[in-house]
Structures are given as C-alpha cells and as structure tokens.
C-alpha cells in the first residue's frame, strides 16, 4: 500500500499537466468532454459509473486515478459499504495485487471523506 497523500498526489498531477493542457488544448478538452459524457447519469447513475472507474483504477494499479475517483465518489454520496462491496469484486477479479490497491482505496477514502 502506498504511503502518499492522495490530495497531494492529485494536486501534483494537476500542476504537472497544466503545461500539457496549454500545449494541447483541443486534446485535453476532448478528454474532459469524454470524461463528463461517460460519467453523466444515464441507465447507470454517475455514482455507479464512478465505482466502475475506480474498480478499473484498482485493477490497473493507478494511484492517481484512485485519488480522483475516490474524491468523486465522496462527492456523489457513495457509502463506505458500497465502496467495500465494489472492492470485493476487484479482489475477486484482480487477486492479491488488487487487494493491495484496495487497501490504498480505503486509506484514500478515510482521508478524503473527512474533507467532504
């Protein structure tokens, strides 16, 4: 499990990407539009779509993605039991490595849900 602070990680990612956003505004605007369209309520709620995104982040082992999607889930009113149930599917599908990142998700949840 990582020992870093997800709030700091997300800030650092945003700061590092700022020049890229300026250099590639069309591509980054397209990515942002895709993200908004993908997460918008439809047949699945935004919360369920964020749970799916977080499960992919866990199984792909992306700490930055974990931070951003945990933050979004907190804002969408996800409960810890919902989060934990999704994590069991991650562990089922991703085995031991997913379990290690599940621990990271729980640590991020505990820190980021306090700020909500």
Task: Explain the overall architecture.
The chain has 116 residues and is mostly helical. It has 5 helices and no strands. The longest helix has 36 residues, at 80-115. The radius of gyration is 14 Å and the shape is globular.
List keywords for this structure.
mainly alpha; globular
Chart the SSEs and their pairings.
Layout: H1 6-23, H2 25-39, H3 46-60, H4 63-75, H5 80-115
Helix pairs in contact: 1-2, 1-4, 3-4, 3-5, 4-5
Average pLDDT works out at 94
Question: What is the beta-strand fraction?
Answer: under 5%
| Overall SS class | mainly alpha
Query: Rg from C-alpha positions?
Result: 14 Å
Unreliable spans are: none
Topology pattern, helix = H, strand = E: HHHHH
Q: Report the total helices.
A: 5
Task: Give the fraction of residues assigned to helices.
Answer: over 70%
Concise summary:
The protein is mainly alpha-helical. The chain has five helices and no strands.
